[in-house]
Amino acid sequence: MKWSSLFLLLPVLFWGLSYIAIKVVLRELEPVEMIAARFLLATPVLYLIIRGKGLKVWPVEKMGKLCVAALLVFLHFWVMAHGLKETSASNTAWILTTAPIFVAILAKAYLKEAFNAYQWLGMLVACAGVVALTSEGSLSNLAWISSRGDVIVLGSCLTWALYTVATREITGKVHPLVATFWMTGIAGLVFIPYTLATSGIGVYLDMQPITVLSLIFLGVFCLAVAFWLWAEGLSRQSSAEVGTYLYVEPLFAMIFASVLLDEPITIWLLVGAALISLGVYISERHGRVKLHEHDV
Predict the structure, then answer these.
(1) What is the pLDDT of residues 157-192, one digit of tens each?
(2) Which residue among 112, 229, 254, 286 is least packed, with the fewest CB closer than 10 Å?
């Protein structure tokens, strides 16, 4: 295996496992409490990585937009976590795979980017996959009470699209690791004091060991280390090769959720997963959808 492949495979493995870790942490913490701590853990590790690579964290361009991006990425994680409380890790992973299509739609609406027939076809196929996955073969399961978690997770695809489109100008000016450092740091500075004031430090001191380990995994490995490795892999392989790895992420999530959380792998989950993958593939292969803009 090439080192560049390992740089991409490890983050995808971490991100696939992240859905299971989030489910574990949400048993004891509220979404705001979890995300604030996750960002607080990631920020110093990102700083050490940045210094090790010889990059500068200051001065930095686009600080105003970095502040906006920090709030948007926090909002995205918050919405997704609320959805994940009410649906499975497998459903969440597959639904979030459609995020690049939402990015393309938003870019068409606000940046006037092209959206061709293949992208519309891909979107329809992916939507059919989401319906199959959510309904489990019965349209009655699409009722708000039954599918609320899936709908909220689908809504987080929109928040990710808002974040991605809003930060496109930043990525051309600021190194991705530096931008991630500032976004996690700014969001942490805002929400950690809020969490301590509203929930108190006791919520963290009373956590079970498995929750502590899951939270450390989410902050250190799924955010800081994964983004560093992903940036290294992106610099070494083509976007087409990178896309292949992102298709594997929800597969990891589905397998680990079955083993660790006893989530069933049903025929409708497999059908939905296949349609979602096909829809995103059509949109990416024949359109302007960029799979690397998938929620990671």
Answers:
(1) 888 888 887 777 776 778 888 888 998 999 988 888
(2) 112
